[in-house]
Amino acid sequence: MARSGPEETRARLLDAAERILAEEGFAAASLRRITRAAGTNLAAVHYHFGAKAGLVEAVFRRRLEPLNRARLEALERLERAGTAPGVRDLLLALIAPALRMGRDPATGGARFMRLLGRAYVEPDPQVRALLHGLYGEVRERYFAAFTRALPGLPREELAWRLHFVLGTIAYAMAGSDALELVTTCDWVDPDDVEALGARLIPFLEAGLRAPLDRGEEARGT
Q1: Ranges for the HTH tetR-type domain (predicted)?
Q2: Most buried residue, 9, 10, 40, 105, by CB count within 10 Å?
Q3: Residues 112, 63: contact at Cβ < 8 Å?
């Protein structure tokens, strides 16, 4: 069924905002620039989203709500298998849906992954608060699963390590803009999601399984 006029306008605004936010960042991207790219006007933004903050929220909800469902479904499949999932299984369940999204332009592709990376490396409190809320159930369910997979790790230490895991995933998925900050290696293709996943999961697993130092062991007892 073809989209009606208002639905098409809303989709054009979301597409334009996603692209321009990814290219220019949250502070620099103006509503006038977005509406010009979408072939519409400021009144359409106010009608569909209320203001720029509502538009930004809708951009993230459009992509992250399906991504979160896929991550929760992957976790539920592991938990129904009858054996407690291991660390690598959990990392794959967490990362694979994002890698699939990164390969598919219809669900945001590399452009949305780059935007998501920006959300973690740019100091925008409203966007970070939005992401914190959107990730709530995924964060709680996976934290519980990793707690079971790493029973010897104190809760506070696991929280720190998962914080680093999520930050690393976001930075890696941000693509070439982020990688260019730390390397000029022309043999590295940061948009090759298959190579990214193959290297990222063992790296993260090693970090989660790293032995505690004696000070951390003492605090965990």
Answers
A1: 7-67
A2: 10
A3: yes
- Those residues with Cβ within 8 angstroms of residue 110's Cβ, 6 or more apart along the chain or in another chain: 102, 175, 191, 193
pLDDT digits (tens, 9 = 90+) for 156-186: 999 999 999 988 887 777 654 544 444 455 5
Domain assignment present for residue 78? The answer is: yes
Do 67 and 23 belong to one domain? no
Q: How far is CA 155 from CA 140, 165, 208, in A?
A: 13, 15, 12
Q: Is 148 left (phi over 0), alpha (psi -120 to 50) or beta?
A: alpha
Helices then strands, each counted (H, E), the chain = 12, 0
Per-residue pLDDT tens for 1-35?
344 588 999 999 999 999 999 999 999 999 999 99
DSSP string covering 110-134, please?
HHHHHHHHHHHHS--HHHHHHHHHH
Q: What is the pTM of this model?
A: 0.83
Domain count, the chain: 2
- Give the length of the chain: 221
- Low-confidence stretches of the chain (pLDDT < 50) are 1-3, 176, 178-183, 221
Query: In Å, what is the CA distance from 74 to each residue of 44, 79, 92, 145, 153?
Result: 37, 9, 9, 12, 24
Question: Domain limits at 20?
Answer: 1-50
